[in-house]
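Submission sheet (multi-component)
Chains listed below:
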Amino acid sequence: MKNPKKAKRISALTAVGALALVSLAFGSSALAADTTSPTPTPIPSPRPTISAMSGNNPLDAEVDNESEAEAILGSNPSSLGVLSSEVETAEAAEVPETPETSETAETPDSTSTSEAPGTDNEVDAVEAEDQQEQASFDEDINAANQAGESEDAVQLQEDAAVVASVTAPVVEAMVTDNAQANAIITGVPTK
Amino acid sequence: MKVQFMRTALVALVVGALSTGLLVSGPASATAGKVSPKEKAAIAAYAKTIAQARAAYFAEVKPSRATVTSIGKPAEITRRADVAAALAIFKAAVSAAKAPSLSAQAAYKAAVAKSGANPTDASLRAVAKASLVTLNKAAAALKTDASVTTATAVFDKTRAAAMATFRATVDSAVAVRDATQVQAMARFNAIKIKALAKLKIAVKAARASKVAKAKAKRAKAKRHSTKKTK
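Outcome: structure written.
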């Protein structure tokens, strides 16, 4: 290098180029690392803990409602993730699943109509019998219609209605009573 | 020359960083979604309060619910047994009342089938028509059958009495349970309202502090870079 000015310029340009390359590499690696960090924390679905504890009593729904807290934290999705994990941690610490809790949680289910003796099965039996009778009448009505005996079909429909009307109100009343009694025991409002 | 070189190098660095997004997606923006320790502490405090309130709520409501269940379950078993017995009597009465209609219908079905198998036979068709008339008469009789009316009335009376007995058995326990429920929920809600208000204030303060810190950091960095270039 005879020209020291030119040599300096070349070395300067080389240095600048090297710096640019280094910064490029650093920038891209930071970017690559960065793409993983801002991944939003998935917002967990509502926890089933309270409903499981209370035996799915809708009266307890308010106790499990965190929509107001979520509204306060709403602008930051990460907060919701923190909220959920904090609530779970706090609940695990503060609400131990005592035998009494799980026992009472199971109780409403054990009083469900399916386990109680008789009546629901009786209702089903009466309904099944009625359905069988009505199906038999339907067969006759269809046959009459197909044979072009529309007047006969109308009469058969009336007869079928009379036969059905004998037990239908009784079945309806029993179903209502059973639902009401079950609601009284489980504490679920009927209205 | 040295200053010129430094300037060029700095520009190259900035261009390189910008072109790859380092400054755009730098540490400040990368942490924007993270929850600050202060906010986390506020959430933890809220969660603890709510968990305690929940525990208190269930501790309050569960005994009265259990009482209703322990009284209600046997009462319901008795009620259903009474209704089932009444239903058996009702069914026996109704089956007897329905029998003429159902047998008339069976006869009609058979006559129609015979007539269908021999469509040219007018006598078979007449038999089918006659059996329909019999069925209509039987259905009309069933409609006004006094035995059905009586059986229905007896069943309804037994059913209502069974329900009344059931209610009388559980009513006082249910009243206690429902009142306890209302009280417990009111207590829980009062705690929740306070906790939410606290959370709101704490989160607002934590976020404001976070923003102020970030602003100060940026200003400091800016001052630092300006000094260097000078």
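Remark: Residues 26-54, 97-118 of chain A have pLDDT under 50 and may be disordered.
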